[in-house]
Design brief:
Blueprint (H helix, E strand, L loop, with lengths): L6 H4 L5 E3 L4 H11 L4 E5 L2 E6 L1 H8 L23 E3 L8 H5 L4 E5 L5 E6 H5 L8 H4 L5 E3 L4 H11 L3 E6 L2 E7 H14 L2 H9 L3 H4 L7 E2 L4 H11 L3 E6 L2 E7 H6 L2
Parallel strand pairs: 1-2, 4-5, 7-8, 10-11
Antiparallel strand pairs: 2-3, 5-6, 8-9, 11-12
Helix pairs in contact: 3-8
Length: 258
């Protein structure tokens, strides 16, 4: 990486939310601005972050089924572990941090919040010196008629953030932690408490997946894949050759290749 590029050259204005805000407000803000996670503040002090994944887990938990999403606060889902850098540090410091954290908080010398850096921010100027196959990771699949409760269990137990959805070996969609968070919110707001346990068990992957799927061919250049991902603001994209799913290119796999 260039010695002349610093954190301040890639950082963006911090996007924050109060610890006292509702999780629905946090989710709306993440979706509207295309970011994940948000920096959580308490009396103007950074206390952690809130992600789409943490919101999905909270709204999807059975023990919270009798609580309205409009009664759950960010304080209940805040992830207190986060990492920080300073604006004049070399950009290289960001690579190992973003391989672990979704977001890096930027402080000034007086420990005041002045910015943030995401994987997308870094990947706009830093690109792996590798071929497509070297960056591609395994794609996990799930049938569209599978139940969402089973999807969530696989996500939690195996730490899988996204699945390519199939029907009769044909790709029909993709489902991510964002889809789960949005679906759980809508479900909890629309279905009466006494019916939730029964109805959620009948919710299918095809009911919440994103479709059609944005994909790329197996012979495409990695730079072109990254251009598509950054332009469309997507965190992952399936690689398909002749209708066969080869794998996924994700922001995580791109960061690992830097």
């Amino acid at each position: 990486m260039s010695e002349d590029v610093f954190v301040k050259d890639v950082m963006k204005k911090p996007v924050t939310i109060a610890k006292s805000a509702l999780v629905t407000e946090a989710l709306d803000k993440m979706l509207e601005q295309g970011i994940d996670p948000l920096i959580v503040l308490n009396n103007n002090t950074v206390v952690g972050t809130v992600s789409r994944q943490s919101v999905a887990e909270k709204l999807g938990t059975k023990r919270n089924s009798d609580i309205s999403p409009n009664s759950i606060h960010v304080a209940n889902v805040v992830e207190s572990e986060f990492t920080t850098v300073y604006p004049d540090q070399d950009i290289d410091v960001l690579i190992p941090l973003l391989q672990v954290y979704k977001l890096v908080v930027v402080y000034d010398e007086d420990h005041r919040l002045i910015g943030q850096v995401s994987a997308g921010d870094l990947l706009k100027i830093c690109r792996p010196d590798a071929g497509l196959s070297e960056v591609m990771e395994r794609a996990y699949t799930i049938e569209e008629d599978e139940r969402v409760v089973h999807l969530r269990r696989r996500m939690l137990d195996d730490d899988i953030k996204r699945f390519v959805v199939t029907q009769n070996q044909k790709i029909t969609g993709i489902v991510t932690e964002t889809d789960v968070a949005v679906a759980m919110r809508k479900f909890r707001e629309l279905v009466e408490d006494k019916y939730q346990d029964h109805r959620v068990r009948n919710l299918l992957v095809k009911d919440i997946m994103s479709s059609p799927v944005l994909s790329v061919p197996g012979d495409i250049a990695l730079d072109d894949v990254m251009d598509v991902m950054l332009d469309k603001k997507v965190g992952s994209i399936p690689v398909i050759n002749g209708g066969k799913l080869l794998g996924l290119i994700t922001r995580e796999s791109l960061l690992k290749a830097l």
